[in-house]
């Protein structure tokens, strides 16, 4: 595998993208950019597309990074700048379990990977999005990843595979 210095992590909500980004950031000594932290401002208000684009371009132009999150409108730009893509292609039940665990353990608190002033909450629309994620996105993600010829593409189908990968890294 080639060197990993610019890593994009994608996958369904609740799959553990932010957790993986933090783990890899520590092990590889790379700065981590959480898209949710950029996109969401106080009280779950989001920034404009233009502001998101500006911040993402600034991050992608840095020499090293890990960026976690989907935000499909901007994914092709991140893929263009990365050397590695990690796709957490987990079952809907695994992801829903991850979301419920997160709600239970951090409800009412602002997570470190989330925007300031955005406490964890129960959001039925988000749960529906997670439930339908694979049906709505999996095929497109695999097509997108198949087109990446000069990149490391890592696809994990469960948490055990992903943990083994993280443990292998120095």
How many angstroms separate the termini? 14 Å
Q: How would you classify the helix and strand content by structural class?
A: alpha/beta
> CATH homologous superfamily - what is it?
P-loop containing nucleotide triphosphate hydrolases
Task: Please indicate the percent range of residues in DSSP E strands (runs of 2 or more).
Answer: 15-25%
Amount of helix: 40-55%
Kindly report the CATH topology: Rossmann fold
Rg calc: 15 Å
CATH architecture: 3-Layer(aba) Sandwich
**Oligomer type:** single chain
The overall strand count is 7
User: Mind describing the biggest β-sheet?
Assistant: 5 strands, parallel
- CATH top level? Alpha Beta
Shape verdict: globular
The order of strands across the largest sheet is: 2-5-1-6-7
Average pLDDT confidence is 95
Q: How many helix segments?
A: 7
Give, in order, the helices and strands. EHEHEEHEHEHHEH
Q: How many structural domains?
A: 1
| Low-confidence runs of at least 5 consecutive residues | none
């Amino acid at each position: 595998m080639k060197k990993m210095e610019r890593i994009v992590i994608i996958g369904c909500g609740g799959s553990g993208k932010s957790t993986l980004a933090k783990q890899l950031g520590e092990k590889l000594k790379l700065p981590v950019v959480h898209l949710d932290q950029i996109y969401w401002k106080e009280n779950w208000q989001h920034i404009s597309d233009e502001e998101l684009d500006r911040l993402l371009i600034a991050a992608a132009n840095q020499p090293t990074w890990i960026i976690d999150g989907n935000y499909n409108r901007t994914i092709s730009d991140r893929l263009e700048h990365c050397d590695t893509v990690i796709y957490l292609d987990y079952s809907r039940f695994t992801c829903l379990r991850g979301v419920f665990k997160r709600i239970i353990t951090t409800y009412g608190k602002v997570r470190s990977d989330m925007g300031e002033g955005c406490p964890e909450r129960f959001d039925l629309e988000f749960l529906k999005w997670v439930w339908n994620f694979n049906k709505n996105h999996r095929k497109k993600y695999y097509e997108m990843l198949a087109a990446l010829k000069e990149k490391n593409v890592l696809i994990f189908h469960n948490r055990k595979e992903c943990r083994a990968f993280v443990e292998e890294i120095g």
